[in-house]
Amino acid sequence: MRYFRNIASAIIFVAGSGLLFSQIRPLDAMLSDYQYPYEVHFLELKSQDNNLKMAYMDVKPQKANGKTILLLHGKNFNGAYWEKTAKDLSEKGFRVIIPDQIGFGKSSKPHSYQFSFSQLAENTKAVLDQLGIDKTIVLGHSMGGMVAARFTLLYPEKVQKLILENPIGLEDYKVFAAYQTIDQVYQSELKNTAETYKNYQLKFYYDNKWKEEYQPWLDLIAGWTVHKDYPQVAWDAALTSDMIYNQPVCYEFKNIKTPTLLIIGTRDRTAIGKDRAPKELQSKMGQYQELGKKTQREIPGSKLVEIENVGHLPHIEVYPRFFEALYDFIK
Where is the AB hydrolase-1 domain (predicted)? Predict the structure, then answer.
C-alpha cells in the first residue's frame, strides 16, 4: 500500500545480535514532514479565542454517485489511516471527506481549549459547510465513534446513515474508573514511548499479535514522543482523555433516529481508565462482544455486524470483511 512509503521508523539490524528494532523518526506537532495519502486542505477556524487550522482531505469520486461519506478518526490515530477505505469508496462513486480533529494529526494543537464532543462536531460541520455539503453518511472509529454519535444527535438533518466501527464510549467509564486530573493525565502522557504505545495496543487492540500493517500507525504517534513538540501534543492528548471520560454518549443512543450500523470486532478490549479501576471491575470493561449487542438494542432499528476474533481496528486488521459490511449498508 502507498502509505508504507511514509513509515516513520527505519528498521535496523544490530550486527551480531540477531535483533531488529525501530529507530523512530521525530515528527513535529503538525506532522509537517509526513505526507498524507491525499492532498490536505485547511479550514481556518476562530474558536474559543483561538485562531486554528483544521486539516482535512477531500477525495473526489471517479464517477460520482451523488453521495458523500465523512470518515472520523480515533484518538490514537489521524485521517491518514483511512487511505484504502477512501480509495475504494471513491472508486464506488462516493465523495470522501476525512478531517483531522483539532488537537490531532495535522490540525492545530491549542493549549487553552475546552475540548468537547459538541465542539468537535461543530468544527466538523464547519468543514462540511465550507464545502457546501448538506447531507453525508458518517463513519466514526474509536473516539471518532463518539464524535459521530454527537454529530448525529446535534445535526440529524445532515446525516443520511451512521456507521460506528468499534467506537469507544459504549459504556460510561466513570462508573468503573477513578477520576484523574488533567495534570495527572498530562504527566502520564509525557511518559509515553513507542514501547508503551505498542504494549497498550497489543493488550487491548490486537491480543498480543503484532502484524506489519499495524506499524505505520504506531510509528506516527511514537514519532511525536521523540520530538521537542511532544509536550504540546501530550497536553491536548490529556485534554481529550478528560473529554472522553467526562462526556459519555452512551445514555443518548436511544435518541438516535438515523439508520445505524455497528461494525464490531469482538476481541476488542479497549476501555478508558481500565488501569485505574478496581481489579474486580477491570475484566468487565471493554467487553465488545457484549457491548455491541447492548448498543444495537439501544439504537432503534440499528444493525449489528460482529467480526469474530478481530480487535479494535477492523478496517486495518481484516479490511475486506470491514469494507463488505460497510458497502452493503451504504450502497
Answer: 68-317
